[in-house]
């Protein structure tokens, strides 16, 4: 607490030797704050002219500091998710129906897109005819690639 004569600090335990210098630094910093008084604390926002906080003023301030607010979480999240999913595909560990059957689930392992072959990672992401996921990617990149299973 602070009274007219200065700070009256009561500690629950005696200070250790290594804490004494830190306490002296702390008290010196406090003495430089001469504007402190015994009046009640008040909340004041620097984002609003009247000092009132609002979510809108915080959002506008954040938007000024970060011009791409709408893209902010996605730039961090999607890179990690794509990397993890690609790792699962490379390890043949993505939960396709084929992998679920190997883990003991009672399923009919049939591709839900073509309904002809078993739903495996290779079939879903390389060969399934209706999805053509890789074909879209390849066309965008301008790569010439021909699948071994073009008719599937």
TrEMBL record:
Pfam families given in the database record: zf-RVT
Residue span, Reverse transcriptase zinc-binding domain: 53-127
Official protein name in the record: Reverse transcriptase zinc-binding domain-containing protein
Natural source organism: Solanum verrucosum
